[in-house]
Write a sequence for this structure.
C-alpha cells in the first residue's frame, strides 16, 4: 500500500463521470478466473533444476576468434545495426488485437513480407516467437539512448503437407523504435566452428527460437531443453547475399541476410539435452523467456503444454557481472493456464499468456475460427484472473520496469492480410 502522501486522488469531475458510467452499466461482471491457483513448486524439486554449459563457451569462443581473424566477416555491435536502416515497419497496431482499451494498448507491425510469411507452404516462411528489448537490456529501458526491441523467429516449411521441415533456421530481429519510426534488420543465428587446420566457419542453427531475452550485450534464446547464448558485440556483417550459410574462401553469407549472430555458449537442463516430451521431475523445458529485475536479476522460463495446464514457470538466478546464468533455479510455480505461451512478472504480480477460460476470447473474427488469446494476472497461491484478451496466438510476454508496461507479440499466420503485431499494455 502507498503512503498517504503518495496517493493521488482523481479530480472531482472524473469521480462523477466514473459514478455515472457505473450507474449506466449496472453491476460489474466478475473477471474470468482460473479454477486452481498459481501454485509454488516444492523447494526440494526446485533445487534439482540446473543449467549446464559444459565446455561450449570455450569451444565456441575459439571458433569465433578464428572466424574474426580470417577477415571474411566484419564485426558489428548492436548500435551499429540499429542505426543502419534496413526494413521499415509500421508504427501503431495495424490489426485487431482484442486488447482492452482501458489498458492503453500500443505497439507496431512488421513490414508486409514479415507480416504474411507462411511456414505452411512448400516454400516455407518465418514465424515470430519471442520478444525482448532495451527494456530488458538496460535498467533505464534504453539502448544507448534509444528504445529498441529484439524478436526471435523460426523458419519451417510444408507444415501441413507430407514430410514437413520444422525449425530449419532461426533468426533474431533488431528493431530501432526511436522517433516513432520502426526500422529493423534480421540476424541469422549461426553456430561457429573451427577445423583441424584452425580455420573458422559457421553453420545454421536449426531451432524453434522460442523465448528470447536481451540482457546487457547477451541474448538468450530458448529451444526446448537448450538455452542458447549469443553476444551482440559479435554481430557478423557478411559480404555476400546468397542463400548459402558459412564461409567459402574469402566469401561469407548468411542465407540472404546481411548479418549473422554466432552462438557463444549453450546450456542444457539435463545432462543429455533431449526432447521436451516430458515436462515433469527435474527435466524442465524452456519455451518462453522473460527477465525479472525485482531483487537479484533472474531469467524466467515457462513450459508450454498443448491444450493442457500444468506448465511450470521457473526463475533462474543471473549474475549481473557476467550477464550469464548462475546455473540454478530459485523458485518455480505450476500454472493453471492452458497452453501457456508466456510468463512475466513485475516483482509482485505475474502475467501469463495462454488460452482464455470458457466464455472469454470470442469475437476475434479470425477466418480459421481461432479465438483470442488471454493475458491472465495472478500472484503465487492465488487463482489467475483475465487481465485482457489479446491477439490470436499471443506468444511470449515481457515486463518493462521503466514504463510499467507489458510487452508481447503474436505468431498468427494470414498470408493474405497479415495479423501479426508487437504490442504493449499497462498493468491495470
Amino acid at each position: 500500500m502507498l503512503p498517504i502522501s503518495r496517493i493521488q486522488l482523481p479530480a472531482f469531475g472524473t469521480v462523477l463521470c466514473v459514478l455515472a458510467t457505473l450507474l449506466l452499466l449496472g453491476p460489474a461482471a466478475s473477471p474470468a478466473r482460473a479454477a486452481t491457483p498459481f501454485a509454488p513448486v516444492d523447494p526440494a524439486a526446485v533445487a534439482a533444476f540446473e543449467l549446464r554449459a559444459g565446455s561450449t563457451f570455450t569451444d565456441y569462443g575459439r571458433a569465433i576468434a578464428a572466424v574474426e581473424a580470417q577477415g571474411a566477416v566484419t564485426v558489428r555491435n548492436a548500435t551499429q545495426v540499429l542505426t543502419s536502416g534496413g526494413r521499415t515497419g509500421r508504427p501503431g497496431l495495424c490489426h485487431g488485437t482484442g486488447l482492452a482499451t482501458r489498458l492503453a494498448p500500443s505497439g507496431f507491425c512488421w513490414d508486409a513480407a514479415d507480416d504474411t510469411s507462411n511456414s505452411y507452404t512448400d516454400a516455407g516462411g518465418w514465424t515470430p516467437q519471442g520478444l525482448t528489448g532495451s527494456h530488458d537490456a538496460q535498467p533505464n529501458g534504453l539502448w544507448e539512448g534509444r528504445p529498441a526491441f529484439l524478436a526471435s523467429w523460426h523458419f519451417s516449411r510444408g507444415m501441413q503437407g507430407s514430410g514437413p521441415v520444422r525449425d530449419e533456421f532461426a533468426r533474431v530481429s533488431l528493431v530501432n523504435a526511436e522517433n516513432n519510426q520502426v526500422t529493423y534488420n534480421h540476424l541469422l543465428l549461426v553456430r561457429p566452428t573451427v577445423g583441424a587446420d584452425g580455420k573458422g566457419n559457421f553453420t545454421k542453427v536449426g531451432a524453434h527460437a522460442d523465448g528470447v531475452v536481451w540482457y546487457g550485450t547477451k541474448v538468450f534464446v530458448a529451444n526446448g531443453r537448450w538455452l542458447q547464448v549469443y553476444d551482440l558485440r559479435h554481430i557478423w556483417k557478411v559480404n555476400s547475399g546468397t542463400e548459402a550459410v558459412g564461409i567459402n574462401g574469402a566469401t561469407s553469407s548468411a542465407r540472404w541476410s546481411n548479418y549473422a549472430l554466432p552462438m557463444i555458449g549453450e546450456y542444457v537442463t539435463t545432462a543429455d539435452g533431449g526432447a521436451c516430451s516430458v515436462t515433469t521431475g527435474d527435466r524442465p523445458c524452456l519455451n518462453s523467456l522473460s527477465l525479472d529485475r525485482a531483487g537479484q536479476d533472474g531469467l524466467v522460463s515457462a513450459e508450454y503444454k498443448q491444450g493442457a495446464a500444468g506448465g511450470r514457470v521457473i526463475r533462474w538466478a543471473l549474475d549481473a557481472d557476467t550477464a550469464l546464468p548462475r546455473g540454478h533455479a530459485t523458485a518455480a510455480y505450476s500454472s493453471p493456464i492452458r497452453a501457456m505461451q508466456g510468463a512475466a512478472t513485475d516483482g509482485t504480480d505475474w502475467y501469463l499468456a495462454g488460452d482464455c477460460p470458457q466464455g472469454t476470447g470470442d469475437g476475434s473474427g479470425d477466418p480459421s475460427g481461432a479465438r483470442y488469446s488471454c493475458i491472465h494476472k495472478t500472484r503465487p497461491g492465488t487463482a489467475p484472473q483475465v487481465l485482457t484478451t489479446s491477439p490470436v496466438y499471443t506468444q511470449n510476454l515481457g515486463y518493462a520496469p521503466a514504463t510499467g508496461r507489458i510487452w508481447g507479440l503474436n505468431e498468427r499466420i494470414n498470408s493474405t492480410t497479415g495479423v501479426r503485431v508487437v504490442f504493449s499494455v499497462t498493468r491495470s
